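Progress note, sequence design subtask.
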């Protein structure tokens, strides 16, 4: 059945008032725009990744290398979405490419550069890729 916003009403399962930047394991689902099947297809009950799906798989496996304080767990690529478990292990919600951390809530995992925390008005690294 194709997604129809008039009949498919999703309610948020987020905990009201919970700080999702806190350490913990988070189940994440990301869908493609308009739910287009961009990552591959199901053939004989198996997911067959295309180039975009293989790129998603590579980027997921590189998350731990690029983001200190973030670990990954189980992950699956589907034709029009991905599911994965990301574990925050104590890092703040920062991207710190060039200098000391400037997070208002204390230290984060910024070994070599300034912290671009959303709270201090600096730009935040949004995890885009050139792959």
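Output:
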């Amino acid at each position: 059945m194709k997604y129809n916003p008039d009949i498919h009403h999703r309610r948020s399962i987020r905990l009201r008032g919970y700080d999702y930047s806190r350490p913990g394991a988070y189940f994440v689902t990301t869908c493609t725009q308009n739910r287009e099947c961009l990552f591959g297809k199901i053939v004989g009950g198996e997911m067959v990744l295309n180039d975009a799906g293989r790129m998603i798989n590579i980027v997921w496996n590189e998350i731990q290398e690029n983001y200190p304080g973030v670990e990954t767990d189980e992950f699956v690529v589907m034709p029009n979405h991905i599911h994965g478990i990301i574990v925050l292990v104590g890092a703040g919600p920062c991207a710190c490419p060039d200098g000391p951390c400037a997070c208002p809530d204390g230290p984060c995992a910024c070994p070599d550069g300034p912290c671009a925390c959303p709270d201090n008005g600096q730009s935040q690294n949004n995890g885009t890729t050139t792959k």
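The chain has two domains: 21-91, 92-123. Work on this subtask will continue into the next period as scheduled.
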